[in-house]
């Protein structure tokens, strides 16, 4: 069954890949996308899962999915959007698995270490990354896509399947929570 692809706002060369520049065959196209976007997708995933190895796994799974589903993608120019969606969903799944694993290890299904389900104890993380990890997942997604991936509100709404108003709400709440936490740490 082909993927239902929508036309995102400002999508002509939105992701830095001109539609006509992608090779026609699957292997060459996925390889070209991998070479161009792997590093930035790992950075994005790392901000979401706070762990380099897990971030790399999530991105590799996204490219594997793209390779398997290549024939179902009607517009090769939409391939980067597909990969990014896979990374966002994969990161969410990894966080859910972590939370479940921690609950199981503790033997108490009510226990949750922090709202984001992330370990923020590593000393080498910046204060913002640590605080970002404490936000609810949707707020974290919106802030990462806005400030680290530089998407517009319309593009974020499209990517996450939510309204532009919801994007504004999540961004506002996330920024307010970060500001409160930064004020409290000074």
Q: Mind sketching the topology for me?
A:
Elements: H1 26-49, H2 52-69, H3 79-106, H4 127-132, H5 137-147, H6 153-160, H7 164-185
Helix pairs in contact: 1-2, 1-3, 2-3, 5-7, 6-7
Description:
It is a single chain. This protein is mostly helical and 186 residues long. It has a single domain, classed as PhyR, sigma-like (SL) domain (Butyryl-CoA Dehydrogenase, subunit A, domain 3, Up-down Bundle), CATH 1.20.140. It is 63% helix and 0% strand. Helix 1 packs antiparallel against helix 2, helix 5 (137-147) crosses helix 7 and helix 6 (153-160) packs across helix 7 (164-185). The longest helix has 28 residues, at 79-106. The protein starts with 25 loop residues before the first helix and ends with a helix.
Please summarize what this structure is.
This protein has 186 residues and is mainly α. It has helices at 26-49, 52-69, 79-106, 127-132, 137-147, 153-160, 164-185. The N and C termini lie far apart (54 Å).
């Amino acid at each position: 069954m082909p993927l239902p692809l929508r036309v995102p706002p400002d999508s002509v060369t939105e992701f830095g890949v001109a539609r006509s520049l992608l090779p026609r065959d699957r292997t060459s196209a996925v390889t070209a996308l991998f070479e161009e976007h792997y590093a930035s997708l790992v950075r994005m995933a790392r901000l979401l899962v706070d762990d380099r190895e897990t971030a790399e796994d999530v991105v590799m799974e996204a490219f594997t999915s793209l390779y398997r589903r290549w024939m179902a993608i009607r517009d090769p120019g939409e391939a980067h959007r597909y990969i990014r969606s896979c990374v966002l969903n994969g990161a969410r799944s990894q966080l859910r698995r972590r939370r479940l694993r921690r609950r199981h290890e503790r033997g108490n299904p009510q226990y949750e270490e922090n709202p984001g389900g992330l370990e923020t104890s590593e000393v080498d993380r910046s204060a913002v990354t640590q605080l970002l990890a404490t936000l609810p997942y949707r707020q974290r997604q919106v802030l990462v896509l806005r400030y680290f991936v530089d998407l517009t509100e319309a593009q974020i709404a499209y990517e996450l399947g939510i309204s532009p108003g919801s994007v504004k709400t999540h961004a506002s709440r996330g920024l307010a929570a970060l500001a409160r936490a930064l004020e409290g740490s000074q």
